[in-house]
Amino acid sequence: MHLHVADHPLIRHKVTVLRDKKTPSPTFRLLVDELVTLLAYEATRDVRVVECEVETPLTTTTGTKIADPAPIIVPILRAGLGMLDGMTRLLPSAEVGFLGLKRDEETLEAITYANRLPEDLTGRQVFLIDPMLATGGSLVMAIEYVLERGATDVTCVCLLAAPEGIAHVQEKVGDRADVSVVVAQVDEKLNEVGYIVPGLGDAGDRLYGIVDL
Ligand SMILES: O=P(O)(O)OC[C@H]1O[C@H](OP(=O)(O)OP(=O)(O)O)[C@H](O)[C@@H]1O
Ligand SMILES: O=c1cc[nH]c(=O)[nH]1
Ligand SMILES: [Mg+2]
């Protein structure tokens, strides 16, 4: 697994505002959208492309276009939905699949409650998007799910990660070169109830404001 921590002053600035407990949902949603656009720049560095011909007003030259089959973006519901628009803005030809995972807050185990993804992902490039990588249970479940269905090249885009979660993904995925995690910042630790510290709280609740679903 390859880890890329984005290090850019604009990203650090926007994450700082996200962390602020006084930041209201509308601003929070806007910032998540802006951040994913910045992270997607890095996350799509290895997006599959092919050469193509393009006619300019002056001549014909060789260009680049996204290869077929198009990549699939998979937001992990709910919080991952907040990152979807930003991602599809940069990759408009991508398809979108959905995976609904809910962490049981007692056991910290992820539970699947929704799945709208092709059964066969053979050879597909997948972008998993979820703002929070805490214990890593949810992301590992999602990565294993798409790999089992044949995906090759899985890029996970997260805003905040705990070192424990990164270690868990690393342990499960091993040294596979085709799985990578792009994250805005790696935080200090998980607390005793599995929240990222300093973190930003519950990303789903801060985006959508419904507590205790
Ligand atoms: O690394 P983990 O310990 O598995 O925790 C991270 C998961 O928790 C959050 O989702 P949550 O389960 O709160 O669902 P939600 O998006 O509906 O709020 C977050 O968006 C991740 O999916
Ligand atoms: O800190 C955390 C941990 C899990 N899920 C969140 O939304 N936040
Ligand atoms: Mg949540």
From TrEMBL:
SUPFAM superfamilies assigned: PRTase-like (SSF53271)
Q: How is the cofactor bound?
A: Binds 1 Mg(2+) ion per subunit. The magnesium is bound as Mg-PRPP.
EC? Answer: 2.4.2.9
Q: Which is an annotated Pfam family here? A: UPRTase
Listed Gene3D superfamilies = 3.40.50.2020
Q: Which reaction does it catalyse?
A: UMP + diphosphate = 5-phospho-alpha-D-ribose 1-diphosphate + uracil
Matches recorded under HAMAP family:
Upp_B
Q: What is this protein called?
A: Uracil phosphoribosyltransferase
Q: Which organism is it from?
A: Demequina litoralis
Tell me the classification of the organism that encodes this protein: Bacteria, Bacillati, Actinomycetota, Actinomycetes, Micrococcales
Gene encoding the protein? upp
